[in-house]
From TrEMBL, chain A:
Domain ChsH2 rubredoxin-like zinc ribbon: 16-45
Stated name of the protein: Zn-ribbon domain-containing OB-fold protein
InterPro entries: ChsH2_C, ChsH2_Znr, NA-bd_OB-fold, Thioester_dehydratase-like
SUPFAM superfamilies: Nucleic acid-binding proteins
Residues in ChsH2 C-terminal OB-fold domain copies: 50-111
UniProtKB/TrEMBL annotation, chain B:
Phylogenetic placement of the source organism: Archaea, Candidatus Iainarchaeota, Candidatus Iainarchaeia, Candidatus Iainarchaeales, Candidatus Iainarchaeaceae
Keyword Acetylation set for record: no
Keyword terms: Isoprene biosynthesis
SUPFAM superfamilies in the cross-refs: Thiolase-like (SSF53901)
Name used for this protein in its record: Thiolase domain-containing protein
GO biological process: isoprenoid biosynthetic process
Tagged with keyword Metal-binding: no
CDD domains with a match to the protein in the record: SCP-x_thiolase
Domain named Thiolase C-terminal: residues: 239-383
Lineage: superkingdom: Archaea
UniProt-listed InterPro entries: Thiolase (IPR002155), Thiolase-like (IPR016039), Thiolase_C_2 (IPR055140), Thiolase_N (IPR020616)
Thiolase N-terminal domain: residues covered: 5-222
Length: 132, 383
């Protein structure tokens, strides 16, 4: 199953763990995750590390997740707009849905996502937690 | 554009334990051929919309399966564009005729979904989103549409009651459709009190997991006129795309690709939104129907919830929407949905829709969405 492949996730470690995206060398637009072509037409980018602070644009609580996340259900999921601009789909940790509201300030947090059984690797990434 | 629909075929939609993927596809295929009074040997090309047969049934190569079912050896291809697979397959058929490559084409849609667990279906359907950006984060389709619903509620003041009115209307229509998965009416309270799937969307905001297939026969104008005096005409058909991930878009409260596809399909057909008598739209979730209605220009932005609550979209009201019961009540066999929408509009325009018949039905529209709006097809049908 593709979800258990360590290589699939390994190649994105820098993006996943450190919130590294790109900045267009021509127009300065920031992207997360990385893209191949900017809307200005340029394909020249430099890596850009995002600070990991942002605002909650919308949120939900997933009652029944897909296979890899089934045992973690229910969990909160949201769309966060980073202070630098790009938006991210991410889980919201250390909170209940009652704690959340649109406009809430949140910050990135390095977290375990799911494991691939006894012989497989554990997958990690970035979730967001409320800043109270 | 003027391409005729000369025949339609559709199976029962629902949990069809005794029917396989092939059984469903073959049943719809033979029905559309019988309805159009042609022979399988008259078909020059086949396109079949299907999203998940590989993940759910271990079957690819649906194109060859479809031609084998008819005992013919013509070009036959499976089309995948997530939940818009059916309408994209229909567009391939239209283009084949427009190009002159064929005069008679069969377009099918099929999905067999109930052989596996809900978790397996949820995982397979997430293939319609962005695996890296959404799937890896634990997003599901109900969750992504819930994010849109909450943002829309925040921006436009949409209420729970207004949202519930969408599903209540769908079930009313479904109760009048003999092939619908659910033929039972529900109330606004039923929707609000059903189990929470992804807050704020409850079970009755969500389309179900469904088995089913649909099929239509397309023919060039001259052939259609000869074969079927009741042929319905496709006058416009356009497709637009957007980012795979919802979070990569500028707005969470509109499906931009609907607007782009509708603007150009209406222009192609020489109509405007006020000429539309009825529409079949992609209500995979109740919120999606409101976004579709606004995207088609049938309501101003932020107004669709009020219209739903005021009952504008019943089959005997101002702008009938989803008279078949929609994805919610008729069911949502993914690849079949875009073709089923065409079947319903054709039946309405031919005055063959039974109890749910719309009185004035001369111009009908279908809107089929893939993912959270990454692919949208809009078709315009005329009498």
């Amino acid at each position: 199953m593709f979800r258990t492949s360590p290589i699939l996730r390994w190649r994105k470690y820098d993006e996943r763990y450190n919130l590294v995206g790109v900045k267009c060398e021509k127009c300065g637009k920031l992207y997360y995750p990385k893209v191949a072509l900017c809307s200005c037409g340029s394909s020249k980018f430099t890596n850009h590390k995002f600070k990991g602070e942002g605002t909650l644009l919308s949120f939900t609580e997933v009652s029944s997740g897909p296979e890899a996340f089934a045992e973690h259900s229910p969990y909160c999921l949201g769309i966060v707009q980073l202070d630098e601009g790009p938006k991210i789909t991410a889980q919201l940790a250390d909170c209940k849905i009652e704690d959340l509201k649109i406009g809430l300030k949140v910050q990135a947090s390095f977290r375990k996502f799911y494991d691939s059984g006894e012989k497989g690797s554990i997958h990690y990434g970035t979730k967001f937690t409320p800043k109270y | 554009m003027k391409i005729g629909v000369i025949g339609t075929g559709i199976t029962k939609f629902g949990e069809l334990w005794d029917k396989s993927l092939r059984d469903l596809l073959a049943e719809a295929q033979l029905k559309s051929i019988e309805d159009s009074k042609i022979s399988p040997k008259d078909i020059e090309m086949i396109f079949t919309g299907n999203m998940c047969a590989d993940a759910l049934s271990g079957q690819l190569h649906i194109g060859a399966m479809a031609s084998e079912n008819l005992r013919i050896n013509v070009p036959s291809t499976r089309i995948e564009s997530a939940c818009a697979s059916g309408a994209v397959a229909l567009r391939q058929g239209l283009q084949a005729i427009e190009s002159g490559a064929a005069k008679i084409v069969q377009v099918n849609g099929v999905e067999k979904m109930t052989d596996v667990s809900t978790e397996q279906v949820t995982t397979a359907l997430m293939g319609a989103g962005d695996e890296e950006v959404e799937g890896f984060q634990g997003a599901t389709f109900p969750a992504l549409y819930a994010l849109m619903a909450r943002a829309y509620m925040h921006e436009f003041g949409l209420t729970r009651e207004q949202l519930s009115a969408v599903s209540v209307k769908s079930h009313k229509h479904g109760s009048m459709n003999p092939i619908a998965q659910f033929q039972k009416e529900i109330t606004v309270d039923d929707v609000a009190n059903s189990a929470m799937v992804s807050d704020p969307l409850t079970l009755l905001d969500c389309s179900p997991i469904t088995d089913g297939a649909a099929s239509i026969i397309l023919a060039s104008e001259s052939v259609a006129k000869k074969l079927n005096p009741e042929a319905v005409w496709i006058a416009g058909s356009q497709q637009a795309t957007d980012t795979l991930a919802l979070s990569a878009r500028d707005s969470l409260t509109e499906i931009k690709a609907t607007r782009i596809a509708a603007d150009s399909a209406f222009k192609q057909a020489g109509i405007s939104a006020k000429d539309v008598h009825l529409a079949e739209v992609h209500d995979c979730f109740s919120i999606a129907e409101l976004l579709a209605i606004e995207g088609l220009g049938l309501a101003k932005k932020g107004e669709a919830g009020k219209h739903a609550a005021a009952g504008y979209h019943y089959f005997d009201s101002k702008i009938p929407i989803n008279t078949c019961g929609g994805l919610k009540s008729c069911g949502h066999p993914i690849g079949a949905t875009g073709v089923k929408q065409a079947v319903e509009v054709v039946h309405q325009l031919q005055q063959k829709a039974g109890k749910r018949q719309v009185k004035k039905a001369e111009v009908g529209v279908t809107q089929n969405v893939g993912g959270t709006g990454a692919t949208v097809v809009v078709n315009v049908f005329k009498r």
